[in-house]
């Protein structure tokens, strides 16, 4: 049957005309403000002390001596990876000119779920850098992955640099509570291999973390005695420093494409938050994207204002997707209380429609773990994870009095990202969360009964 098309509205321009029409963009060299670009030395602002320390630690490798391992500590976006990557890249170039064969690889603990996956990734990155045949991740034991890594370093390199970014996030979901986190085993096995001289060549570990306490307290005693890094601290940036960092990338945009107040404004917004240079750069890029979408030739302050919400949301989603499974279950429980408890929350004298009381969230945590046969951890652990999510600014932890000497209670507030968006994000990520949502009426009644009794 021939489909009746009916009367068609005139398309103003053909697809070809649209694709080939004039292309306007505010970006001259967008790469400069893309997330993973390692910029040249002359675009690094400040950080002289940290640069000097990292240089002095790496330098012995160029003379055949073993550098110490390093722990670069400090909040997100303060230049830890940038400094480590820039010094490593330069050292490799100098090494090549002196016949010292060096290579560096970087792996981020945030995106890795297990020790096996992380070691495979390191091995794979060396294989890629050295143009070697890739070996498979599956069907081989973790210890043979380590062996392959040590063989590569031994056979092809005088010296390897392994940057382990945000390593404290590599906890390893499938471990039970008595086992140390995955990062403890990784650090133990890598640093021990050097100690017992498993190879003729050697490597150094550069670990970066936002949370040195979680990292160091997660090490078991055997790791503690083999991994003794030199620590280098990175503080967050103030508005002036952020303005300088952004000004050094001004040429990412065409000459007249940025209003004069855009860079100072982006710097001020980022400084008010965490003093995070990544956030500042992301905000500037997103403001440019918005101007482009509107087909405007100049980025205005209003575009930054608009971009702010989007960038903040992306950050929260990124954290949620990458925290350990138990933290996700805890957050899911609290978000479910808020999402399905709106009626009760609205009626309450002490709570608001943006909150979820901690005790009810914990009851739901127990209910969800029973429902999906997930390992149930203590209330103490639940409260600790939620406190951590507060420090990552996923939720806000608030303590409130009920008045009339009825005591104080804790509540979680959802203002950066709605509880609904959190529930959706998690349900898309893991089918156990989607299962819990299947019987919506049951879930609602569990939440509401618990809120009534609160
Ligand atoms: N001093 C600086 N000069 C120029 N650019 C900087 C500086 N510090 C950070 N940046 C830029 O900010 C972004 C984030 O930096 P980087 O990835 O090094 O942060 P980090 O401390 O490793 O963060 P995280 O802990 O989240 O991994 C990168 O684009 C980096 O180039």
UniProtKB/TrEMBL annotation:
Domain AAA+ ATPase as annotated: residue spans: 66-256
Gene3D superfamilies tied to this protein: 1.10.8.60, P-loop containing nucleotide triphosphate hydrolases (3.40.50.300), Winged helix-like DNA-binding domain superfamily/Winged helix DNA-binding domain (1.10.10.10)
Keyword match Nucleotide-binding: yes
Keywords for this protein: ATP-binding, DNA replication, Nucleotide-binding
Binding site for ATP: 78-82, 237, 249
Top-level lineage group: Archaea
InterPro entries according to UniProt: AAA+_ATPase, ATPase_AAA_core, Cdc6_lid, ORC1/CDC6, Orc1/Cdc6_arc, P-loop_NTPase, WH-like_DNA-bd_sf
Role of this protein: Involved in regulation of DNA replication.
Family: Belongs to the CDC6/cdc18 family.
Protein name, UniProt field: ORC1-type DNA replication protein
Gene source species: Haloarcula onubensis
